[in-house]
Amino acid sequence: MKYNFKNDYTTGCHPNILKALTSSNLTSEEGYGEDQYSKKAVEIIKERLSNPDSVVHFVSGGTQANLTVIASVLRPYESIIAVETAHISVHETGAIEATGHQIQTVKSPDGKLTPQSIQGQLNLFEEVHTTIPRLVYISNSTEIGTIYTLEELKALSQFCRVNDLILFVDGARLASALTSSASDVTLHDLAIYTDVFYIGGTKVGALIGEAIVINNKSLQKNFIYNMKQRGALLAKGRLLGIQFLELFKDDLFFELGDHANKMALKITTGISDLGLPFLTTTFTNQLFPIFPNVVIAKLMKDYAFYTWIKIDDDVSAVRLVTSWSTEEHAVDGFLEDLKDALIL
Amino acid sequence: MKYNFKNDYTTGCHPNILKALTSSNLTSEEGYGEDQYSKKAVEIIKERLSNPDSVVHFVSGGTQANLTVIASVLRPYESIIAVETAHISVHETGAIEATGHQIQTVKSPDGKLTPQSIQGQLNLFEEVHTTIPRLVYISNSTEIGTIYTLEELKALSQFCRVNDLILFVDGARLASALTSSASDVTLHDLAIYTDVFYIGGTKVGALIGEAIVINNKSLQKNFIYNMKQRGALLAKGRLLGIQFLELFKDDLFFELGDHANKMALKITTGISDLGLPFLTTTFTNQLFPIFPNVVIAKLMKDYAFYTWIKIDDDVSAVRLVTSWSTEEHAVDGFLEDLKDALIL
Amino acid sequence: MKYNFKNDYTTGCHPNILKALTSSNLTSEEGYGEDQYSKKAVEIIKERLSNPDSVVHFVSGGTQANLTVIASVLRPYESIIAVETAHISVHETGAIEATGHQIQTVKSPDGKLTPQSIQGQLNLFEEVHTTIPRLVYISNSTEIGTIYTLEELKALSQFCRVNDLILFVDGARLASALTSSASDVTLHDLAIYTDVFYIGGTKVGALIGEAIVINNKSLQKNFIYNMKQRGALLAKGRLLGIQFLELFKDDLFFELGDHANKMALKITTGISDLGLPFLTTTFTNQLFPIFPNVVIAKLMKDYAFYTWIKIDDDVSAVRLVTSWSTEEHAVDGFLEDLKDALIL
Amino acid sequence: MKYNFKNDYTTGCHPNILKALTSSNLTSEEGYGEDQYSKKAVEIIKERLSNPDSVVHFVSGGTQANLTVIASVLRPYESIIAVETAHISVHETGAIEATGHQIQTVKSPDGKLTPQSIQGQLNLFEEVHTTIPRLVYISNSTEIGTIYTLEELKALSQFCRVNDLILFVDGARLASALTSSASDVTLHDLAIYTDVFYIGGTKVGALIGEAIVINNKSLQKNFIYNMKQRGALLAKGRLLGIQFLELFKDDLFFELGDHANKMALKITTGISDLGLPFLTTTFTNQLFPIFPNVVIAKLMKDYAFYTWIKIDDDVSAVRLVTSWSTEEHAVDGFLEDLKDALIL
């Protein structure tokens, strides 16, 4: 196989992280997130947020982050509003419902929620007989590669505050979103305009790890008990702290996100130059070009990627994902091979 | 107020039930469904089913029946397929999700599922990352008054067996469905073609009570432990047994369902004669005629009923529900008043 | 069989309740507790409590009351402190754990909690790694027939407030407790000194029904959503309202509790006069006399009751329960037969 | 601080693991446990078990392993029998109850279950009204450092099979148990005599990771769906596979367990030589010596460890834990300092 474009977690971790794990390996540390690395990582992330009131906790993975946050902040009869393509709704094996909560989904061609689409769900509320919608779940970047602009984020934030809704951002691919050429959102904005969000590490060069950031003070209390109860509190919390320290002590987090986006943009440009269309326009590390099925078959001999959706009998959309470790020559090679596949 | 068409549980219970409660009142009985009345009621229902292998349990209400059955038969990662209007999805305050299970919903103009629409949901399955669809939930009659024909029921049954799906029928309004002029389904058919269903008592003249019928032997074991755990096992189980004995020892259950349908049909005919359309064609005790808003406003001075959905700025569909206790003169009066309201 | 002393729910309901069900039967009422009877019953109970700020809701049974209250007031990581014999711990098929909460139990010879025994559980708390004890569950009367004095109740109340604990009283047999000759506690005391409690109807002459009383204002919000979600909200809520109206519009509730206690006291006196000991001294409707096994065998030919615990090879404690419907001649007959059995 | 004896997860990981993470870092692998390292690690562990029918899955931590296994194998109304000191009961913040299951605990001075103590719990079963005990949870080594002999394990296994109970072994410290000088149990024995167990990695030199081994075929199906739903399925499953490959491709797992035990034995011998008693006799890496409080105070200036339990006003038991990374000179130094503290 020449290259694997299936996802952004095919390789291990950024070499700096391995180095840090190695150099810290034999120090003796407290468990459960009380180690010096985790503490430092929390401090540095809070500086980045420019929000001293935020609370930061590290967990292993995205589903764990989502289920722990949601089960922590909702009462049993409160529900979640999300788009139909939301990760929590379609790719987490019912993890949210397993904590007892209903998800109400909204169709959305661009994978994003708006005040209008949330209002549509609120309108379905019937006293006593329905759940009370309480949490708005969005992903940035979304499951189909799109991103929220600052204006959109602000509008959602204001709408949520007016309607007593909790705004939660799944940031599994936040690095790619924030460093996208089309984005004007910063970490600080997320600290100001959301109640809680998480910063994905796994998809931007960590071995594992997501940093949950709770900005709303009323949601911070006893959060760690929920983590422990859901199996999300690591004994060797240092493993998470060390990695986030590496990602944030300089600009590694942003550099790696930016690199993935640049590789994606190069592919986008190359494909567009060949006159091929896309299912959705994205400026992040997930691309959804539409290829003839015969081309897909040829490419799949040398490349790994998912066929996303059948468009008609002849063409399909595929998903190509770049990452912090995608090398430029792999991208160049892919574009060459695509060109060849189209000609033949 | 002249009459209340809001639902089929506005009045108490059929006089025969009151009589039976009175005559049995001071006998000493075992608790938790082991009383002689419950035992006899179970035997009689099983005779009606012509299926000696079915197991019958009584619970207080519909949500309790639904949540106890579903939590009992599914593994944590298994999900439910239902129509978008399904009672469990929109009017039970997240009761099913509160037991940990995801509901996948299908749009359906007539409120019914088909093998095709179920297959559409099965196609969304992705190994490991999605729940495994395992239970098909249908209501008969449906939440919008429609019913399943025997052919449709058989088709669903066969599809479910081929695809290892459990077929569960919510029979909150089963009396109305089975006695509908448009129905060719019998209790025996339900025993043969479904894995589990329940016979609603509350909406056909009982004070409370639904009879859960488990036909699939592999789902019968220890069901009563689930009932106890969910608070669905009454200490004085006699209250449920006595009522179902009255409903089934003769044909009261069917007579009361038939009466409600006849009253509904009379309203349907009267409204049709006035040239007014319906949102959906039903032959059960729920009607959804479309009235001018001014007419609705006039009628609401003397009658209670729900406005169901706004059609446009001038007209809306309303819901009219008849019951075992709806008297013919109330129906006649309503049609008169409707005629007057249209004229003015 | 001459008489059934197994429990206090062997018979139907008090005749007044049947009369009220009959006379109200055909009135048209709103569902889900919004009927006029439920509303009146709530008002009358609140007057009895002399606490206008309490909120009252009716549910069908004790397990339902317990699980709905507990799941409503606790966060996922909060736990319950109870005695080892607590109904929620040993006779509800894991209903509380099924809502996600841990119960920490304390050995107690008299079936009661004290500030000291609660403190013993609080001492086991370890930050992050254990649940946070938050709710103190007591039953009055207890599962072994004992009762709390006002002084004991006050001490628990004060301890709970100081330690941020919720005090919840399971009142399945509250009528017997409050009318016990040894009790100085009133309904008003319960409204003042507890956060939430329920008034049992099933065991004092109702067909079904428990009245949940929430005194702590911070626990009242949206409680009805929990009821609906757990299947505890009856469509024909009138059934519960009518019964509690009968029990409380005059003094029926107290008269029936008092009657059961008087019958129990007569048995106690009779047994003591025969020189037989008791496992525990009670002044409520549950008695635990110790009989020779041969006597038990003889009595069981004519009477139904539970053998509670084996004391040694020759004697065992049994449980005798009287109720609102226990007739004095049944008690007299039992004492006669006991005397005969001892002689032979 | 001279040395930290608080637990066996104070340091990072064994250097071989770091080396393997480094050398494999940039290979492209499938996610979710489908990588080549995880597959190889599974094969090697199955060889070690000499049980080709076992199924092996990797998760991040012990609480996650426990809650995922238990929620996977039990029906909602089934409960767990465990000792009062069981980790799942006292140190997992109610994680098991949060999945809906009750734990019934047994007092046990040596932290172990026996057929007799399990039978005592089975005797409490009452049809319908109690949960059905279904899973027996033991830890090896136990939470207080003791271990099960092969004879004890066999007896439990036979008892469980006769009584339709699932035997589950929490092996967070299995390396220490299996390499204990007092143990005659092998991995093969665990595969033969238990239904499911897990092999702890975190406490024997891995960064994170526990290997769940399901021997009972009826419990294997769809286990991975439970993992995903509970947030226990890592995207970069390679992190777990690589570590277990290192631990089991040679004898590293056993060597590290053995080292920890040897260091513990040296401390035990040293303390015994000084004439000091122990709370419990252990041959694993957890020790519970009893020291004068003044000695504890002195030692705590240079060493980190937990005071376990107060014996009387003058002496307390402490817990000392050694690990794969405990160096002999640290042990020697501690014994010297202890001697000094006793003299002064």
Please give the largest β-sheet of chain A. 7 strands, mixed
Per CATH, the class of the largest domain in chain A reads Alpha Beta
Please give the alpha-carbon distance between the first and last residues of chain A: 20 Å
Computed Rg of chain A: 21 Å
Number of strands of chain A: 13
Features:
globular; 4-stranded antiparallel sheet; Aspartate Aminotransferase, domain 1; 7-stranded mixed sheet; homotetramer; 41% helix; alpha/beta; 2 domains; Aspartate Aminotransferase, domain 2; 344 residues
Please outline what is shown here.
Chain A folds into 2 domains: 3-9 and 253-343, Aspartate Aminotransferase, domain 1; 15-251, Type I PLP-dependent aspartate aminotransferase-like (Major domain) (Aspartate Aminotransferase, domain 2, 3-Layer(aba) Sandwich). In chain A, 41% of the residues lie in helices and 17% in strands. Chain A contains 14 helices and 13 strands.
Polypeptide structure, described:
Four copies of one chain form a homotetramer. Chain A has two domains: 3-9 and 253-343, Alpha-Beta Complex (Aspartate Aminotransferase, domain 1); 15-251, Aspartate Aminotransferase, domain 2. The mean pLDDT of chain A is 97. Chain A is globular, with a radius of gyration of 21 Å. In chain A, helix 2 (36-49) runs parallel beside helix 11 (238-249). Helix content of chain A is 41%, strand content 17%. Chain A contains 14 helices and 13 strands. In chain A, the strands form three sheets. The first copy, chain A, has a seven-stranded mixed β-sheet, with helices on both faces. In chain A, strands 9, 10, 12 and 13 form a four-stranded antiparallel β-sheet that branches. Chain A has a two-stranded parallel ribbon with strand order 1-11. The first copy, chain A, has helices at residues 15-24, 36-49, 62-73, 87-90, 95-98, 115-122, 150-162, 174-178, 187-193, 223-229, 238-249, 252-273, 293-299, 328-343; strands at residues 3-4, 55-59, 78-83, 103-106, 132-139, 166-170, 196-200, 210-214, 286-287, 290-292, 303-304, 306-310, 315-321. Chain A is an alpha/beta fold and 344 residues long. Chains in contact: A-B, A-C, A-D, B-C, B-D, C-D. At the B-C interface, strand 1, helix 1, helix 3 and helix 10 of B face strand 1, helix 1, helix 3 and helix 10 of C.
